[in-house]
Amino acid sequence: MSNFGELQSLANSITAVTSPFRNYLNDLYEKYRSLNEGAVADYIPELALAKPEWFGVCVVTTEGQVFEVGDCDQLFTIQSISKAFVFGLALEDHGRDYVNSKVSVEPTGEAFNSIVLDEVTNRPYNPMVNAGAIATADLIKGKNGTERLKRMLEMFKRYTGRDHDINVPVFLSEKATGYRNRAMAYLMLNFGMVSEKIDETLDLYFQQCSIMVNARDLAMLSATLANGGVNPVTKQRAIDERYVQDVISVMLTCGMYDASGEWCYRVGLPAKSGVGGGITAIAPGKVGIGTFSPPLDVKGNSVRGIKVCEDLSQDFGLHLFNVAKPERNLQEWIAGGDGINDW
Ligand code: GLN
Fold it and tell me: Is domain 80-209 in CATH 3.40.50.700, yes or no?
């Protein structure tokens, strides 16, 4: 069977009836559904249209089982989550040393849109803050903007198993109002950290932020990294395995903006969030988690998404540095029903 949709619906129909993990996720969804904290991003009108009650959680195992609850078909813009994956593509295009000469991998402790570069090398701090993401987008190869965007969209397809569109109104709005990002880009141009095709690159950056995904796609993205760079459902390789650890480690240290330290301490899973309300989190070798809920905390991370990841990490001992016996064993909870692993 090669069709992704068929595989996915088969996986869902099996998991829907057989696995206790399914019930666990339903309970988790109910537990946080009524949590009404945070505010939907409104720096452009298109994002402010998101409904605060939208809420979806999807978990994909490295065996390719898909569990989901809530609004997992609802599309939204990937925003900053794209940064981690585009970093992977830049590494494939140029290798580690060259990419690192243009973008550092040091957490900033500053907001995602801060205008700060390393004082000695003039490099942006890391690929997860806007400056670093723009410098990373600059590295994506292609003879023009269209080809570079096409390469990005093909990459996302390798991870998620399906085609992605750009939300054009979001792109145009980001482009029209992105003065701060433009200022950062030109500051980096001044220091020779980005090439002179910077206007094309800014468009590319605004486009990558405007790619539409759903919570299931986010789980597929992280499940693919958790699975060594191979999509666990389609079995297609999405990224050279040499660079999987680069992407994951930068997600761990820098993925949740200036909340990355607290996130690492409390959740302990490499992750990336976006102002569209998504979070993608990786339990290496085990699962990918995708959450979607638009209300954000002051640091720009989804309030319900954080809670869901905290609970999953705690309840199943997924924290990277957990050495205690977890309250629940993930494999057992997932495989608890009949036939779950048979397909
Ligand atoms: N498009 C947004 C920006 O560049 C992305 C920010 C985000 O998700 N944090 O400001």
Answer: no
